[in-house]
Every structure is written in structure tokens, then in C-alpha cells.
Design brief:
NA-bd_OB-fold; BirA Bifunctional Protein, domain 2; alpha+beta; lysine-tRNA ligase activity; about 35% helix; about 575 residues; cytoplasm; ligase; ATP binding; 18 helices; 5-stranded mixed beta barrel
């Protein structure tokens, strides 16, 4: 049991940080005007300190001088402490400190090695963020945390550091400060591993207060101030670290299979590689309208043409669409292409990628989700046909559109079924879109176990090779996990004439109002004309992989999610 107790006078919630965001009684100011006003307030506080004012005398709790958009009282007090440090010749942000070990290193070396009350002669220099303080008499306690949440106790004694230094510690140190301690490693009377300080210094003065660490962060703070979440919430901090581990695992698996990582353009003159509405921008130097990448597919396939037979990219993509628990406008995806593969071989690779990631991050194919339930990525994964499963759900056969000589189930019939079931329809419809809408109605959120849904309609898959034995169908699968799509895989279309036909169909759909349809990319067609080998390809959202592995929402997996500004 640690001697530390929470310093309730210094644990006000993050609401103090957000007071300026409440505009109900605040005047409107431009960004520059407010920044200049805050600088003026900082200068006024420092001037009062330099003139001999106490900390309490230096601040203006009611903001009578600078108004409601100025620093709240807590921030003013911390600004005053910074000013006092500077007046006394103490640097609140020193460039270098004699840090000799980490908090994690101390724990690894000494945990379980010292009995209560034991002392060593080992002198260390250690630093971390102050999470708790107990100021009591001549022996003060402070808890420091490393970035990964590992904690160590510091003990500051009047006998060891002197009365003046202890008084300054009590006066200047706040929760949230980065603090340096130098001293012997000991075990306290209650058995808490500690650094008994002979020296201390503020390594970085925190001007904003931490939230109340014993309370759960609200959603707004989690998304708008993720750096606060990393300090206060183990789940947020672990998500950042687990995401890094997941990406590293993917790279190792690709490397094991001799894939080469490349980088492709984010700014593109023709958007393509997926059915999605793009963001647009303008390049002044060329006076040229450009699209932010929705997928790297067409450039990675150019690599196949160039002789890079196994290629992948971990890439940022941008889609100007809706936002929900599994969709974000800016997200990270991995795409990979393998010459002389197909949708069967690439499916086996994706299964290996997901399973190895689970093992590398969590040590097992069975993961524990945030709600406490377990999910198993091991064993064999299910597989189902889109057309067969839809026919089974409807109780009537749905036939693919195999062309003029084998038209299949008509758009009119499919539309009537959709209307009868109350299925939402797009403004621009075709056979393939209606088939997918109907299938999603019955199955999309019901496929809990890992399941490959195979063999999609040709109309919705303009970059995929036609099925080797089923007219009107392409060799494509989508991988569903826990009721959402995690990845997709193709036998890649490499016939430039068929690809041009598909592009023309897409361009006509775009002219008819389909905002997700792609344009004709003549440069890509020319590359295909040079010759692209048969290939399998896949795309998988890394954010969604973290959703699958943890049970989080997409906002919780993205370290800095895009949020709408408050003002």
C-alpha cells in the first residue's frame, strides 16, 4: 500500500480546460485577438510576480481585467508559478537533466527484491509526470508515471533536501508537471518501491490541469484531447501502443513472404481504386484540381507491371462520406498485391496476417474485447457465396447478370423485392448494387464469426477479374468479422480492354449521378497494356483491424480522430 493519497485540491476536472469553449456569456474574438489577450494576461501575471506579489496576489480569479475568455484561475496560478521560477533563476523547461534510468527500468530491476523498510546505496536519476502528491510535514510523497503508465514513488524529506527546497517543492509542483528526482532506491515502511530524493527539479511545468484521474473521461474529451486520454486512461494509452504493435506485425508477416513496401501518391489527378466519394483540392503551382487518395490500388498495380511481384503499402486514405462506428473520413489501410496469386491465395495471406497480428499483440488467437467478451480468430474460417446465400434468404433464386445473352434477375425484379423489404436504394441503381443492398439487409451485421463472403456482382467490382466459371460474377471476397467488413480480396483484372469497358461503365454511372463511381484512368490502362501478370490483391483497414481485435469504435482506434471544431 503506497503512502500516497490524492491531492484533492489539485484534481479539478478537465472542465477547467474547456471553460473558454462555452460561448454563452463570452464575447466573440478572432484567434489572433484571443492569443494576444492571453499573452497580455501572462505578461501581467509575471509583472506582478516580479514586483514582489505573492502567487495569490498575482492572479485575477474572476478575470475582471481580461474577461471570460482569459485563463481560468487554475491556469493563472500555474502561469504565476512559472513566473516565480523564472524570477528565482529556475528554468521551468530545462534542456537537460541527469536522467540515468527509466521508471520501467527501476520496476524491472527492483520489484520484489526489497523488503519493507530496506534501503540501497544505488543512486538514480529518474523523471516522470506527477499524478499524485501528498504534502504533509517534513516528509512529502509524490507519484511519478512513465509514458506507459508505470509508476514509482518519490519521497522528499526536509532532512535530505533542506527546508528551503522542501518549501519550494510544496509551492511550485502541481499535478501534471514533469518532475526529476535524484536519490537512493529504497523500499518505504509500507513496502512501496521509492526514490528517496536528494535533489528534485521541475522538468516541464504543466500550465493546464489534469482531469480528475479517478473519474472516467467523457467522450468529448477523449476525442478532442486524446493526449489527455493517453495520460488518464489505460485503454487509450494501450490502444496507441497496440496499434503500433499491430502495424509492426503486419510488416513482419509481409517481409516473411518477400513483399516489398512502397509509397504511392496521396494527391492524384484521377480518383480510383475503390467505390467512394473523394475529397478534392487544388494545386496552385500547376493550377490543377486534384483528389485525395481513396485507395492506392491503381499505383500498386503499376508496380506489378514494373516487375515488383509482391508489393504492399500501409497508407492514409480519404473518403468524403459518412462517419459512424466503423467509418472515418481519414483512415489507414494496408493494400497488397501478389503476382501469380488469386483471391484464394490472397485470402490465405489475409487470414495469416490477422491471426499473427492477434498473436503478436495479445499473445493468443483468442482476444478479450473491451466489453469483457472473448473472440476467437483461430481455426478454420467460414466461407459463403453472396448469390447462393441471398437466394436462400429470399426463398427464390437470384441469377447474376451474365450479359445480353444471360441477363439474370432484372433490375426491376430486384427493385421490387427491395421496396417490399424496405431496403434503402441508391439514386443510381443497377443489378449489382441491388444484389449487394439485399444481401446486406439479411446478412451484413449478422456474420459474427470470421467469414469470407465470395463471388460478387460484376457491376460493383470494376477492377476485379471475372469468375472463371460463373458469368456475371467476379472473383472477389469480403471478410466479415463481428458483423462488419474487415477486408476485401480480388483476383485482379489485368485485361486492359475489359478494364476499359469497366471504366466506361463507371464513367457513365458517374455522369448519371453516382458520386462513388470512378473515372477513366488512361495512364493506368496504358500500364496494363504493357502487361500485368495474373495477381491476387487485398485491402484491409488497420483501424478496423483494431476494432476487430479490441471491440473499440473507429474513433477509439485512431490516435487523433477528426472532430468538428466547437467554434
Amino acid at each position: 500500500m503506497s503512502e500516497l493519497v490524492e491531492n484533492t485540491e489539485n484534481t479539478e476536472g478537465v472542465e477547467g480546460l474547456e471553460s473558454v469553449e462555452n460561448e454563452s456569456a463570452a464575447p466573440r474574438m478572432t484567434t489572433v485577438e484571443r492569443a494576444e489577450m492571453l499573452l497580455a494576461q501572462d505578461a501581467a501575471i509575471r509583472a506582478r510576480i516580479d514586483d514582489g506579489a505573492t502567487l495569490d496576489e498575482a492572479i485575477d480569479p474572476g478575470n475582471k481585467e481580461f474577461g471570460p475568455l482569459a485563463h481560468p484561475e487554475q491556469v493563472q496560478m500555474r502561469v504565476a508559478k512559472r513566473a516565480l521560477m523564472m524570477k528565482e533563476g529556475l528554468n521551468p523547461y530545462p534542456v537537460e537533466l541527469d536522467v540515468t534510468t527509466t521508471i520501467e527500468g527501476l520496476r524491472a530491476k527492483y520489484d520484489g527484491m526489497l523488503e519493507a523498510g530496506a534501503e540501497t546505496e544505488d543512486v538514480v536519476g529518474v523523471a516522470g509526470r506527477v499524478l499524485f502528491i501528498r504534502n504533509a510535514g517534513g516528509l512529502n510523497f509524490v507519484q511519478l508515471a512513465a509514458g506507459d503508465g508505470t509508476k514509482i514513488q518519490g519521497m522528499i524529506s526536509k532532512k535530505e533536501v533542506g527546508a528551503d527546497s522542501l518549501k519550494r517543492f510544496k509551492q511550485l509542483v502541481d499535478l501534471g508537471d514533469h518532475l526529476y528526482l535524484k536519490g537512493r532506491v529504497i523500499s518505504s515502511k509500507t513496502g512501496e518501491l521509492s526514490v528517496f530524493a536528494t535533489e528534485w527539479a521541475i522538468a516541464a511545468k504543466a500550465l493546464q490541469p489534469l482531469p480528475a484521474l479517478h473519474k472516467e473521461l467523457n467522450e468529448d474529451t477523449r476525442t478532442r484531447k486524446p493526449y489527455i486520454g493517453m495520460i488518464a486512461d489505460d485503454n487509450i494509452r494501450n490502444m496507441v501502443r497496440n496499434r503500433s504493435k499491430a502495424v509492426a506485425s503486419l510488416r513482419r508477416t509481409f517481409d516473411d513472404h518477400d513483399f516489398i513496401e512502397v509509397e504511392t501518391p496521396m494527391l492524384q489527378t484521377v480518383h480510383g481504386g475503390a467505390a467512394a466519394r473523394p475529397f478534392t483540392t487544388h494545386m496552385n503551382a500547376f493550377d490543377l484540381d486534384l483528389y485525395l487518395r481513396i485507395a492506392p490500388e491503381l499505383f500498386l498495380k503499376r508496380c506489378l507491371v514494373g516487375g515488383i511481384d509482391r508489393v504492399f503499402e500501409i497508407n492514409r486514405d480519404f473518403r468524403n462520406e459518412g462517419v459512424d462506428a466503423t467509418h472515418a473520413p481519414e483512415f489507414t489501410m494496408v493494400e497488397a498485391y501478389q503476382a501469380y496469386g488469386n483471391y484464394n491465395t490472397i485470402g490465405a495471406l489475409v487470414k495469416e496476417l490477422v491471426q499473427k497480428t492477434a498473436m503478436d499483440v495479445f499473445g493468443s488467437y483468442t482476444v478479450t474485447l473491451l466489453d469483457g467478451t472473448e473472440y476467437d480468430f483461430g481455426g478454420e474460417w467460414k466461407s459463403m457465396s453472396m448469390y447462393d446465400s441471398l437466394s436462400e434468404a429470399l426463398g427464390e433464386e437470384i441469377i447474376p447478370n451474365g450479359g445480353p445473352d444471360a441477363p439474370g434477375t432484372s433490375v426491376e425484379e430486384l427493385g421490387a423485392i427491395a421496396d417490399k423489404l424496405g431496403v434503402d436504394r441508391d439514386d443510381v441503381e443497377n443489378h449489382g448494387k441491388l444484389v449487394e443492398h439485399l444481401w446486406e439487409h439479411f446478412y451484413e451485421d449478422k456474420l459474427y464469426e470470421p467469414t469470407f463472403v465470395r463471388d460478387f456482382p460484376v457491376e460493383t467490382s470494376p477492377l476485379v477479374k471475372g469468375h472463371r466459371s460463373k458469368p456475371g460474377v467476379v472473383e472477389k471476397w469480403d471478410l466479415y468479422v463481428r458483423g462488419f467488413e474487415l477486408a476485401t480480396g480480388y483476383s485482379e483484372l489485368n485485361d486492359p480492354i475489359v478494364q476499359r469497358e469497366r471504366f466506361v461503365d463507371q464513367a457513365k454511372a458517374a455522369l448519371a449521378g453516382d458520386e462513388e463511381a470512378c473515372d477513366i484512368d488512361e495512364d493506368f490502362l496504358e500500364a496494363l497494356g504493357v502487361g500485368m501478370p495474373p495477381a491476387g490483391g487485398t485491402g484491409m483497414g488497420i483501424d478496423r483491424l483494431l476494432i476487430a481485435l479490441t471491440g473499440a469504435t473507429i474513433r477509439e482506434t485512431i490516435t487523433f480522430p477528426l472532430v468538428k471544431p466547437l467554434n
